[in-house]
Amino acid sequence: MSILIDEKTRVVVLGITGGEGTFHAQRMIEYGTNIVAGMTPGKGGTKHLGVPVYNTVADAVAAEGADAAVVFVPPFAAADAIMEAADAGVKLVVCITEGIPTLDMLRVKTFLRARPVNLIGPNTPGIISPGKAKIGIMPGHIHKAGTIGIISRSGTLTYEAVQQVTREGYGQSTAIGIGGDPIVGMKYIELLGLFKDDPGTEAVILIGEIGGTAEDEAAAYIAAAFPKPVVGFIAGQTAPPGRRMGHAGAIIAGGKGTAQEKMDALKAAGVHVAVSPADIGATLRKALARRG
Amino acid sequence: MKIHEYQAKQILARYGVRIPRGDVADSPAAAREIAERLGSRVVVKAQIHAGGRGKGGGIKLAASPAEAEALAAGMIGMQLVTHQTGPEGKRVKRVLVEEALDIARELYLGLVIDRAREAVVVMASTEGGVEIEKVAAEKPALIFKEYVPAGTGLLAFQARKLAFKLGLEGEAFKQGVKFITSLYRAFEGTDASLAEINPLLVTKQGDVLALDAKMNFDDNALARRPDILALRDLDEESPLEVEAAKFNLNYIKLDGSVGCMVNGAGLAMATMDIIKYAGGMPANFLDVGGGVTEEAVTNAFKILVSDPDVKGALINIFGGIVRCDMIASGVVKAAKAMGTRIPVVIRLEGTNVDQGKAILRDSGLAFHAADGMKEAAEKIVALVK
């Protein structure tokens, strides 16, 4: 089992004719993702990578039954693209684009509130349900189908965790990057809620980092309502305050959002916290063994 | 991106936020002229990107133009040390010369993005002139907040609520409402990430002005705000960080001795963490990014080893979109060009890992290969000790 996406998900690629869009759409198709349409304004009626291209997302939804969208358009146009996809009625929007201004994202979140759509990202590697579909830019070949859910704010650090999980003999049900920006779509709690109800997921790895309070909110949710084992890791234990560590959202502001605070909150919630990033896989093995 | 106080005040004035009369001077003579023009007692304020200037001797009152000139002569060229600059301080290039005002009350006004509420929050407090974090910790009931609806922007009633909470009356109330509304428009109109007026001044005459002003901007929006980007002062930034930014590299200098170069911000932070876990300290954060080129890798390596504090380097690459062989050739090129005065441990994983390892092995250079982050961190820490 998996959450949010599987082999039946019908995906429209926004920005499919651009460089990034072309490169990654090709790889998603090779992975087996059901890419049913592309969208580039002004290129409607053409075909790209063997896929029909439409002028609007609404056209792609009407003609091809697309129910998910992935956004590869440049930063200053990306907020509009997310809102267009949401307005067209897709259930899931995955926004890969990095560098969207924060005030644009505040408008996006307000716009989405009134619509039944889930947003993943922006500034995310995307989402993958191994063996079924990937909507994103992660290397498919390092993933393996299995029973571990992964939620992360990072890209390559998620790949690191995936590899450790695989080396311990487990696979992934679904792995999701929620994005490295200060304002993102789905956060840990909503995804934990979906993993809770997914019989194919037996444990979850939660990878966080400095900045914001999403991990603290997740810890409170886990303590109150999440019955499956959770392994946690927080990146940025050595990060200085006040500096943005690559991700726009990874900044300790006003002394808040440190790795230590987040690790303490997760531990208090019963999460198995790996202090070293090399111990994520081993911590998972121990957590599952303890459960028996 | 950060800017100077005088630049923030110039922006705010364009949006109708009231600021004291004054101007910026880059010489003592210019400071004297401004003081003469103002025709009153003046305040001379050193312009650097750091707070705590008053305690460090960077803000002083002058009774005459001659005194303003003398104070400016003392400040311009000095290394001003505050609790935010580090022990080496920051060089003062300019001073802001402003009219001195009759202070009745010092308040606080600040705008930031509240990540949990996903909104711009306007914070006001009757406790001005002290750090807002201190007020939040000690007297949280004295901080008043209004969350701005992203669809409409700040509403008039929200500005009025805050002005009433601040205890403003009569002319000061009218000016306060206009001040808050204008400050929000400046924040939104410039893609700011922070706008802080501390203190917000109420004069004995009932005028409401920004005595100090701090603005930071969303780096992601700078490309569409060329007028803001033009205010960047590279002298305030670390030279290595400026150099790195030219190649779209995310580099931050830290205090340790183990340099690191990683693809991806999360993995880069985790690599710093594991260096510490292994008993060392990271010398920097360096994320070469997802779309990195061989040239960028070469430059990244050069920047890394040109830091004299670096006694050894750890390269940790998890190839996804980035290919390990491309990273390996970039590193080999840079190392051949620069010589390797320090030990370098390389951990490669993911796409084309075997080709990457072969390039390193055949380079004739003494790289140390490692399997996994743990082994890599332990090796480099042992080598720098």
Annotate the secondary structure layout.
The complex is a heterodimer of chains A (292) and B (385).
Chain A: E1 11-14, H1 19-31, E2 35-39, E3 47-48, E4 51-54, H2 57-64, E5 68-71, H3 75-87, E6 92-95, H4 102-113, E7 118-120, E8 126-129, E9 133-136, E10 145-152, H5 156-167, E11 172-177, H6 188-196, E12 203-209, H7 214-225, E13 230-235, H8 259-268, E14 272-273, H9 280-291
Parallel strand pairs in A: 1-2, 1-5, 2-4, 5-6, 6-7, 10-11, 10-12, 12-13, 13-14
Antiparallel strand pairs in A: 3-4, 8-9, 8-11
Helix pairs in contact in A: 3-4, 5-9, 7-8
Chain B: H1 5-14, E1 22-25, H2 28-38, E2 42-46, E3 59-62, H3 65-75, E4 79-80, E5 90-91, E6 95-99, E7 103-114, E8 119-125, H4 132-138, E9 143-148, H5 156-165, H6 170-189, E10 192-203, E11 208-210, E12 214-217, H7 226-229, H8 239-246, E13 250-253, E14 258-262, H9 265-277, E15 284-287, H10 294-306, E16 312-319, H11 324-338, E17 344-350, H12 353-361, E18 368-369, H13 372-384
Parallel strand pairs in B: 14-16, 16-17, 17-18
Antiparallel strand pairs in B: 1-6, 2-3, 2-6, 4-5, 7-8, 7-10, 8-9, 10-11, 10-12, 13-15
Explain the overall architecture.
The complex is a heterodimer of chains A (about 290) and B (about 375). With about 290 residues, chain A is an alpha/beta fold. Chain A has helices at about 20-30, 55-65, 75-85, 100-115, 155-165, 190-195, 215-225, 260-270, 280-290; strands at about 10-15, 35-40, 45-50, 50-55, 70, 90-95, 120, 125-130, 135, 145-150, 170-175, 205-210, 230-235, 270-275. Chain A has a seven-stranded mixed beta sheet, sandwiched between helices. A seven-stranded mixed beta sheet of chain A has the order 9-8-11-10-12-13-14, with helices on both faces. Chain A is globular, with a radius of gyration of 18 Å. The model of chain A has no long low-confidence stretch (mean pLDDT about 95). Chain B has helices spanning about 5-15, 30-40, 65-75, 130-140, 155-165, 170-190, 225-230, 240-245, 265-275, 295-305, 325-340, 355-360, 370-385, and strands at about 20-25, 40-45, 60, 80, 90, 95-100, 105-115, 120-125, 145-150, 190-205, 210, 215, 250-255, 260, 285, 310-320, 345-350, 370. In chain B, the strands form five sheets. In chain B, strands 7, 8, 9, 10, 11 and 12 form a six-stranded antiparallel beta sheet that branches. A four-stranded antiparallel beta sheet of chain B has the order 1-6-2-3, with helices on one face. In chain B, strands 14-16-17-18 form a four-stranded parallel beta sheet, with helices on both faces. Chain B has 13 helices and 18 strands. The model of chain B has no long low-confidence stretch (mean pLDDT about 95). Chain B starts with a helix and ends with a helix. Chain B is an alpha+beta fold. At the A-B interface, helix 4 and helix 5 of A face helix 4, helix 9 and helix 13 of B.
